[in-house]
Amino acid sequence: MFGHNSKVDLELNREVEKLIKTGGKEKIMPIVQAGEPVLRQQTIAYDGQLSRKTLDKLIDTMRTTMLEAPGVGLAATQIGLGLALAVVEDHVCEGDDGDSREAAEFPFHAIINPSYEPIGAETRSFYEGCLSFDGYQAVRKRWLDITARWQDEDGNKHEEHLHGWPARIFQHETDHLSGELYIDQAEIRSLTTNENLEDFWCEDPVPTEAAAELGFEL
After folding, report:
1. Cα(191)–Cα(196) distance, rounded to whole angstroms?
2. Residues in CB range of 122: below 8 A, 6 or more apart
3. Distance of CA 2 to the CA centre of its chain
4. Cβ contacts of residue 211 below 8 Å, gap of 6+?
5. How far apart are the first and last CA of the chain?
6. Cα dihedral across residues 185, 187, 192, 198: positive or negative
7. Fewest beta carbons less than 10 Å away: which of 11, 85, 112, 126?
8. What's the CA angle centered on 51, arms 46 and 57, to 5 degrees?
9. If DSSP codes are grouped into helix, strand and coil, which group holds residue 38?
């Protein structure tokens, strides 16, 4: 549970209600882009500052915004809100037998006050994108296995071993909440437009050809 003594921050609650309204009837909020200060700020831990009604509306609107983008995760900073909250969701397409990226079902849920730590030392390097760095992707090395920790809307604590692509999504969104963008530790020589990724590198999930042609190490 969130702190029993926590009180709703009425001013913040009003601001979040205004933010939600920017999504209109479609519930699609603007996604802030790299260069906006909020993306570089350490978020504040969530401890009941919003009413439950506002929190539920916020999470629902964030999910709609994420899916419309489309994306598999969205952090509160990406809609201009400095609270430690994100939403995640990814599904394996029917008939998809997976690939080297080890994609797996990652049901929708909100992750509040998330954190992670690596399990073992194995890493993987794949192309990765971000809704706040629109139009580009770059190769980013991440832990293959992590222990993920977060709270749900009721304040219940969760801990789970995540592997492969779900682990990458969780790391990406959690990093957002400490002011980090994936590009900060990406292989800069791998940076490509989405169009060029589709034209040149999409047939090579492990970016060995891109590494050789563009001149970076995996």
Report:
1. 10
2. 143, 144, 145
3. 23
4. 139, 187, 190, 217, 218
5. 42
6. negative
7. 11
8. 90
9. helix
Q: What is the mean pLDDT of residues 2-29?
A: 90
Q: How far apart are CA 25 and CA 203, in angstroms?
A: 39
- Collapsing DSSP to helix, strand or coil, 208 comes out as helix
Ramachandran category for residue 80: left, alpha or beta (phi over 0 → left; psi -120 to 50 → alpha)? left
Three-class SS state of 136: strand
Q: Which residues, other chains included, contact 148 with Cβ-Cβ below 8 Å and sequence gap of 6+?
A: 111, 114, 115, 116, 158, 159, 160, 161, 162, 167, 170
What is the reported pTM?
Answer: 0.95
How does the average pLDDT of the chain come out, rounded?
A: 94
Bridge partners, 109 (sequence order): 88
Q: Which residue has the higher pLDDT, 203 or 23?
A: 23
C-alpha distances out from residue 100 to 17, 115, 207, Å: 42, 25, 11
Which residues form the catalytic set? 173
